[in-house]
Amino acid sequence: MILTVTLNAALDVTYRVPALVPGATHRVTEVAERAGGKGVNVARVLRTLGDPVIATGLAGGAGGARIRSLLADEGVREAFVPIAAESRRTVVVAEPDAATGLWEPGPIVTPNEWTAFLSRFADLVRGAEVVALSGSLPPGVPVDAYCALIEAARGAGAWTVLDSSGDALRHGLSASPDLVKPNAEELAGLVGHALPRPAAALDALRALAARTVVASFGPEGLLALTKQGSWHAFLPHPVAGNPTGAGDACVAALAHGMIHPRPWPERLADAVALSAAAVRAPVAGSLDLSDYRRLRRAVIVKEA
Amino acid sequence: MILTVTLNAALDVTYRVPALVPGATHRVTEVAERAGGKGVNVARVLRTLGDPVIATGLAGGAGGARIRSLLADEGVREAFVPIAAESRRTVVVAEPDAATGLWEPGPIVTPNEWTAFLSRFADLVRGAEVVALSGSLPPGVPVDAYCALIEAARGAGAWTVLDSSGDALRHGLSASPDLVKPNAEELAGLVGHALPRPAAALDALRALAARTVVASFGPEGLLALTKQGSWHAFLPHPVAGNPTGAGDACVAALAHGMIHPRPWPERLADAVALSAAAVRAPVAGSLDLSDYRRLRRAVIVKEA
Questions:
Q1: Which of A24, A216, B108, B173 is the most buried (most CB within 10 A)?
Q2: Catalytic residue among B12, B51, B163, B248
Q3: Is-catalytic flag, A248?
Q4: What is the pTM of this model?
């Protein structure tokens, strides 16, 4: 089983309006709700791939209850730990040609709630082969949360994949996860200078304390540093669409590769193709497997 | 006791952002939630005036539960009837100098839920001296809902005040409520031509099937047609502020006047001053009684 962790889960709400006019009042013609947060999207893609997956994390208040019931409706098994404060909403105001985001701040987590999560995590991780840790930390969760979870997972014999940013990523790396997946911006934050393209980034990947580093560069593909070698995997022609959720599809592919081990070039080609299929899909965490299979044949993997 | 009815209750959410930029993603710095809907605001003002009040209506899902718990936190007694669908949210994106509204559509009410509400209303109205019916009807509620509720209230010996718009108002008027409070736009919709100012509007008021008509004209005040006479009540200098909720404060004052009967000019002066105090208050349904008392002394009431 793959366990995904989403400590700052969200209720993703989309408001459709003909045009967003600041200062005006809009009657929203359509409201769509969806469970959100990076780890939730990872779980959704893994379920599409047919892997056994459980989504855990923190979910609070009425919004948290809604997140859990929406996941159940989708058939994603969940083991979220309840907290008192309301899980955040991410509101997207969708016009025909533009999308405006309004991100609520995360809920405040109490020390007792964090202790309860650690206890639940210790139970869940005993059944996990891989733990994927994704996204930001809500206020109140210790900044070294991912460090504690990676150590607990390692103690239980599970592989770990980390996809976060800022201090949460930095502290998580101090526990040496099995795989870390920064994007170009996160990588720049870690090494202290911009690395917008994969060409010159291999040295930066060597500086990170993880067994495997897979860095994502948007349409320029993935740069991977592994114990078996290093590769650049990419599509010859970038796909058009919504990049939100592409990184989560990449993490799902890499976690999938840990329980279905094959040579790295194949795993990376899967990750590029799944990410691109997610870009083509209209909402984060959903993708069309036939898109994936078609794109998979076009991926180029070169030694780096 | 005054019973307020809010069939399309809302969870009013305010997002504070430094500036709203269409197409961009915004981290919301502050989220404020408040129970909303016109009848809820009426109940809040009546509680401020010290009148015994119960807020009823339809409240659904997690949002409805939140509306009820927020009312309880404020000390407003509520007897909302639960429905399965989610009560709507009204999101206001507040910049320092502007406010952008996003109004979700109302929840769909089933025939069984409407029947359950009618039964609960019949119980509640037995203890009510006045019933104030405010706002729009959510989908699924019959368009003649206010007609049925006014007839049930009259059968139980309660006075009725109606403040709605469009077809809901038109059908409600067919039951001849004791008082109707259209604004200039609603009045224009009823009589078929624009009446932006009180000066020439008295004939239009005579055309409406209600014992008393009090029409509101924003900063130009109230025009009232009663069995005892007709008056124009206004402030010599309009106040600056947020007009949302001013009409609800007016309805609260008129309902208050029904259980504390005094001559109409005094009731109308109260209604003008409470509306103006609501304009000066930062959020709908709240007001400062010392503002009200100060403004009350300035109100001018003339026979019309």
A1: A216
A2: B248
A3: yes
A4: 0.82
